Amino acid sequence: MSVPGSLFIDGTWQDARSGRVLRVLDPFDGSLVAAHDAATPGDVDRAVAAARAAFESGKWSGLPAAERADLLHRTADLLVRDREHVALLETRDTGKTLRESRADVDDVVAVLRYYAGLAVVDVSRVVDAGPGVDSRVVAEPAGVCALVTPWNYPLLEISWKLAPALAAGCTAVVKPSELTPLTTAHLLSLLAEAGLPSGVVNLVLGDGEVGAALVAHPGVDLVSFTGGTATGRAVLRAAADTVKRVHCELGGKNPNVVFPDVDVDVAVDNALYAAFLHAGQVCSAGSRLIVHADVHDAVVAGLVAGAEAIRLGDGRDERTQSGPLISAAQRARTEGMVAGALADGAVLAAGGRRPEDPALRDGFFYRPTVLTGCRRDTAVVREEVFGPVLTVETFTDEQEAVALANDTVYGLAGAVWTGDDERAERVAAALRCGTVWINDYHPYVPGAEWGGRGQSGVGRELGPTGLAEYRELKHVWRRRSPGRSGWLD
Ligand code: NDP
């Protein structure tokens, strides 16, 4: 497996020649999957120039919206054709299970089709501006977009950006994470196969240096970034110099609140899913379980049994329930945060170690970990781990539950489990975050907006707002019978 080139510029695959070699590793066993040179600043310039020329030519933005929609549908069809191949690429790149990778591909198909449907909806409107005047507001594509994505959901994340950008008529330069470029490169091949004109979407592979050059580039009109909050701050600063539009999807430290009037088995099963899906490397992971004191012991007993039973392994093995972490660095970060919590007095209820299985020795594995009795000021409670670590806190009344849930600088997602409908609605309304699940965890649909409050981000993806992010509105005022202004009379 390899990438067809580290650059896709103006419709042509090319290799970068920076001399800075990036190695893509399979996190299951650390084996080399692909190696390529990072893009140079000159490559970034050429990619942005190609996107700019394609935009200005009108060869994409000038097409009838229905033709842009057709292209998105054709790309979705090609993804359906390549489903197994793409899922396997994603699993080798990220370590997630094939079941998850297949679900990601299916979700991407749904997102492409959703934005194909929205592309043809006319959002212009007429404004009543008085006699003798035609006044209307029209939507135009925002221009050249820099789309920068992380390693946990590479294909999914780029589709949330590219599908609406293309539906709106924008052109783009894409930069996936250096750790997981394979499926993004494949998606670009599929777009070309579907007939996307050259230069409309360009790719530069590379690390944060390449990302930084791209978001700061004066030829870029809009930046859409998904990644960590620290990087998000750097992106916002870099974009400020040329006052670009910026959209950021950042980290989360998401509360999962369990009241005592629920089926404990169901709540535990879902809490494990919320926290340990994709080894906890999910921005919306339910990493803070906030449990009513009356069911705390029963819930923790269930969590411990469930976490210890999770089968780690090769994502390609259908029996595997969870894969490894993305890298040795990510595991070291996780180990450090668990060690810090234990030093601060937390109790290790499950996990807290690498697996003993020798077959997993070369991969970046870490056992699903449950911590109780954490201090609220401990990093593991306040900061995103982005690993399989669940902290458990207790409450005794609804107000305390909401206060604990909202005691975070983040605000991406959260959940409440209760059999009381009125309480469910009260708590859902009180949680300060972009998505709230009631008696569920993790589902999303392309038609519903996704994004965070506080330090979880700026703006929304998905839904009609996810398309509006890639449009500029223009007010057009026309006086039917021109006359003197009267100002100088
Ligand atoms: P990073 O912030 O490290 O990287 C994200 C992307 O930005 C990568 O492509 C990275 O390149 C690039 N990058 C790094 N530095 C810069 C820079 N200065 N300017 C521009 N681009 C840069 O995130 P991770 O890849 O580590 O992903 C994990 C993070 O993403 C988590 O914090 C998670 O919460 C968040 N996330 C948020 C989601 C959401 O919807 N809110 C969804 C998924 C993830 P490279 O990695 O190649 O160096």
TrEMBL record:
Coiled-coil segments on the chain, per record: none
InterPro entries xref list: Ald_DH/histidinol_DH, Ald_DH_C, Ald_DH_CS_CYS, Ald_DH_N, Aldehyde_DH_dom
Ranges where the Aldehyde dehydrogenase domain occurs: 13-476
UniProt keyword annotation of Repeat present: no
Pfam families: Aldedh
Annotated metabolic or biological route of this protein: Amine and polyamine biosynthesis; betaine biosynthesis via choline pathway; betaine from betaine aldehyde: step 1/1
Alphabetical list of Gene3D superfamilies matching this protein: Aldehyde Dehydrogenase, Chain A, domain 1, Aldehyde Dehydrogenase, Chain A, domain 2
PANTHER family the record matches: BETAINE ALDEHYDE DEHYDROGENASE, BETAINE ALDEHYDE DEHYDROGENASE-RELATED
Name of the protein described by the UniProt record: Aldehyde dehydrogenase family protein
